[in-house]
UniProtKB/TrEMBL annotation, chain A:
Residues that bind [4Fe-4S] cluster: C169, C176, C193, C232
Record family assignment: Belongs to the peptidase U32 family. UbiU subfamily.
Record protein name field: Ubiquinone biosynthesis protein UbiU
Cofactor field: [4Fe-4S] cluster
Highest taxon, organism lineage: Bacteria
Residues of the signal peptide: none
Molecular function terms from GO: 4 iron, 4 sulfur cluster binding; metal ion binding
Key words of the record: 4Fe-4S, Iron, Iron-sulfur, Metal-binding, Ubiquinone biosynthesis
Organism listed in the record: Rhodobacter ferrooxidans
Subunit structure and binding partners: Forms a heterodimer with UbiV.
Pathways involved: Cofactor biosynthesis; ubiquinone biosynthesis
InterPro entries: Peptidase_U32, RNA/ubiquinone_mod_enzymes, UbiU
UniProtKB/TrEMBL annotation, chain B:
Organism placement in taxonomy: Bacteria, Pseudomonadati, Pseudomonadota, Alphaproteobacteria, Rhodobacterales
Protein name: Sterol-binding domain protein
Highest taxon of source: Bacteria
Domain SCP2: 49-130
Gene3D superfamilies referenced in this protein's UniProt entry, alphabetically: SCP2 sterol-binding domain (3.30.1050.10)
Pfam families, A to Z: SCP2
Length: 325, 174
């Protein structure tokens, strides 16, 4: 199976390639991609150089242009697709139907993948995207069980890519409005979930208080981990009970499920984390490359030491084993 | 998460005796050299380059406040982070590990080995810009004083072995 790894900077891309990534995904430094964070992402020149580096080392580069174009500003997204092709990208990862139509018509030779942001969760919709826009691969939303993924693969020729490590979204991707509600900015439109400009941590006596857009979303004691700054991982009181009412702050780790995912017909394994450092990228990619190689050699899955790198220092197999509350 | 080495107290206390102005001048020169050789840091900072950043090693009695007035770096050694837009605090070894790409900033932040106060956006931009620069502080310091380079290299290597603190760019990342 192909290992698709994140890179928020050229240095992280090189770290991913060196650690054994088969493909690296990244985005431009603007609102065309869903990780539009300060200090992150690639200029046109950096992307061209990075693709050259990756190709020299036998790795592919996939460019995420996976936000939804603003009315009247589609040109920014159109330019991103054209520039990705010019830089030599192996594929673009798109979510918006209009942008897919534009890329299909104007850049027919540029391979198109369907982003997780499109939330395509059954074979009918995936086959529709394939018939209309020629998508070769779909990144499946993180709401499916392994059995459901196997069912999809039986009914489509489109390659499937699934997340195996990193942060989880509790919502159907591309449809979450929590960040937008609190800050006016969302991953779907602006490429930022819980933008750093709206995140504040305050020490109040012994408590550390996390605020997003002025809303208190978590308050923890002295020895607890720092709370995650998104509403979905916040801690609230509802009907007399206090807890993580949307989602626990835990990272996905599907290492143990790799044999089942292979059997389910999955083509590619995706690691989340373009906003993370090159140290994270190097460690996680190396660990998963070992696992993929072990699987190919018929050996047992290696037990990694990735807990320290996960959100809330806790890990879960997410929806793959269907244990939602 | 690794246990981070803390600077021994007597050494930290001795630093109090050093006057701040020459220390500020030396660190300003070092930072200007780094930014000259790694212009990507300033371009990655973008709008955030107008902010001031306090770096606070919690095991040392000083705080370094970095600003870029008119695009020229200035480092001021202070007792606290007063006047800075954001402050990043942690043991010196954790901060150095971050600069050298040996540890992950988010993991350090969520485990509370790193504390961010004030303007989160500015702190995040600085972290990402520095992470991409693949800095090697030992190398940068030896560039500042070339005649002392061989001695400094031996000193840095010995300190790294004894403390486990990343004083060089993390291996295997380039």
């Amino acid at each position: 199976m192909e290992l698709v790894c994140p890179a928020g900077t050229p240095a992280a891309l090189r770290a991913a390639v060196e650690a054994g990534a088969h493909a690296v995904y990244c985005g431009f430094a603007d609102e065309t991609n869903a990780r539009n964070f300060p200090g992150l992402n690639f200029s046109r020149a950096e992307l061209t150089d990075s693709i050259r580096y990756a190709h020299q080392h036998g790795a592919k580069v996939l460019v995420a242009i996976n936000t939804f174009p603003r009315a009247g500003a589609q040109d920014l997204w159109h330019r991103a697709v054209a520039d990705a092709e010019r830089a030599g990208a192996d594929a673009v990862i798109l979510a918006d139907v209009g942008l897919l139509a534009y890329a299909t018509k104007n850049h027919p030779n540029l391979r198109r993948h369907l982003s997780v942001q499109a939330a395509a969760a059954n074979a009918d919709v995936i086959n529709f995207y394939a018939a209309e826009f020629g998508i070769k691969r779909v990144v499946l939303p993180r709401v499916l069980t392994v059995a459901e993924i196997a069912a999809i693969n039986k009914e489509t020729e489109v390659e499937t890519e699934v997340f195996v490590f990193g942060g989880l979204c509790v919502m159907a991707e591309g449809r979450c409005s929590l960040s937008s509600y609190a800050t006016g900015k969302s991953p779907n439109m602006n490429g930022v979930c819980s933008p750093a400009s709206h995140v504040v941590y305050d020490q109040e006596g012994p408590d550390l208080v996390a605020r997003l857009g002025g809303f208190t979303i978590h308050r923890v004691g002295k020895t607890d981990p720092t709370p995650y700054p998104t509403l979905c991982k916040g801690c609230f009181t509802s009907k007399g009970e206090t807890g993580h009412v949307f989602d626990d702050p835990a990272s996905l780790n599907a290492t143990d499920l790799l044999p089942q995912l292979a059997k389910a017909g999955v083509t590619a394994l995706k690691i989340e984390g373009r906003q993370r450092s090159r140290a994270y990228v190097a460690q996680v990619v190396r660990s998963f490359r070992d696992a993929v190689d072990a699987l190919a050699a018929g050996k047992p899955m290696p037990t990694g030491a990735l807990a320290a790198l996960s959100e809330g220092q806790a890990m879960t197999t997410g929806a793959y084993a269907k244990k939602w509350r | 998460m690794p246990e981070f080495f803390a600077i021994p107290k007597p050494f930290a206390q001795a630093l109090r005796l050093l006057p701040n102005p020459p220390l500020s001048l030396m660190l300003t020169q070092l930072t200007r050299g780094i930014l000259r050789r790694h212009p990507g840091i300033v371009s990655r900072l973008g709008d955030q380059a107008g902010k001031s950043f306090a770096l606070a090693p919690t095991d040392l009695p000083l705080v370094l406040v970095l600003s870029l007035p008119g695009g020229v770096a200035k480092v001021k050694v202070q007792r606290d982070g007063k006047g800075a837009d954001c402050m990043i605090s942690g043991k010196l070894s954790a901060l150095l590990g971050l600069v050298h790409g040996a540890v992950d900033g988010d993991a350090l932040f969520f485990s509370r080995d790193l504390v961010i106060e004030g303007d989160t956006e500015a702190a995040l931009a600085l972290r990402n810009a520095v992470d991409d620069a693949e800095l090697d502080l030992a190398e940068e310091i030896t560039r500042l004083a070339p005649p002392l380079a061989p001695m400094l290299k031996r000193l840095v290597a010995a300190a790294e072995r004894r403390t486990g603190v990343a004083l060089h760019r993390a291996g295997g990342v380039l």
